[in-house]
Amino acid sequence: MKKHSRSKSIVIISAIFLVLGFVLFKLDVLGLVPIFVIVISFFMLVVHGLLHLSGRKDGNVFEAYQEAAKTKGVALEAGLRNKND
């Protein structure tokens, strides 16, 4: 069986909702709801698109953030250690 990428699925769904939001906005339907749909789906599309392109197929944004913070912490510690030596 093929393993599906969660990030890729979220990107596709976000793109569909983005188009739907623009259509509703153009038709002037539901007041401010299309604007919220457009904003939320755009940022979901960008975040999960970047996660997918960077190789994180599971779509876990918090895990990616934790790993980046850990990498930054290790780099800072190594830099300070080299400066003190």
Q: What class do helices, strands and sheet pairing give?
A: mainly alpha
Strand fraction equals under 5%
**Quick one: how many beta strands?**
0
**How many strands, which pairing sense, and closed or not: the largest β-sheet?**
none
- Share of helical residues: over 70%
Mean pLDDT: 83
Tell me the overall shape. Answer: elongated
Poorly predicted segments? none
- How large is the radius of gyration? 19 Å
Number of helices: 3
Number of domains: 1
Distance between the termini: 53 Å
Keywords: Membrane, Transmembrane, Transmembrane helix
Transmembrane segments: 7-25, 31-51
Task: Write structural notes for this entry.
The protein is mainly alpha-helical. The chain has one domain (6-84). It contains 3 helices and no strands. The protein has helices spanning 6-26, 33-53, 61-84. Helix 1 (6-26) runs antiparallel to helix 2 (33-53). The longest helix is centred in the last third of the chain and has 24 residues, at 61-84. It is elongated and about 65 Å long.
